[in-house]
Design brief:
alpha+beta, five-stranded mixed β-sheet, 3 helices, elongated
């Protein structure tokens, strides 16, 4: 009987401790930057660093459904601006300063290659959190 009580007490302690470690991810603001390039055109489009509010990063720190953010930019270029065949990439971070440094590094790399770099205005295009 003594061992049974010890076993149940140990099982209870394990359950209580594991309940705290299985905490679901909390919603945090995430900053997103997008860039679109084409092999058929010498213009590269990019967005400003934008805030996407209340996003839960997965357990590995990746933005869930990040391909949908790329598709948002691609659809905007194709249907609104009439620019097909662009490859769109997004970069994300929880820290705005880190993402701004990354964006300036990527843009300067394109400018060194004598490519025309054009910013998409925030009033024209804004990333939105995909619907669940």
């Amino acid at each position: 009987m003594k061992y049974v009580r010890m076993f149940f007490a140990l099982a209870l302690v394990c359950m209580v401790c594991s309940a705290f470690t299985m905490k679901k991810g909390e919603e945090k603001p995430v900053y997103v930057f997008g860039i679109a390039a084409s092999f058929k055109d010498t213009v590269v489009y990019y967005t400003a660093v934008q805030l996407v509010d209340s996003v839960v990063l997965d357990h590995q720190g990746f933005l869930p459904r990040r391909e949908l953010y790329s598709y948002q930019l691609k659809n905007y270029l194709e249907y609104t601006m009439g620019k097909p065949d662009y490859t769109c990439m997004i970069y994300f971070s929880e820290k705005k300063a880190k993402l701004e440094r990354e964006a300036s590094k990527i843009i300067s790399r394109y400018r060194k290659d004598n490519v025309s770099v054009q910013m998409l205005d925030n009033s024209a295009f804004v990333f939105e959190k995909p619907k669940e």
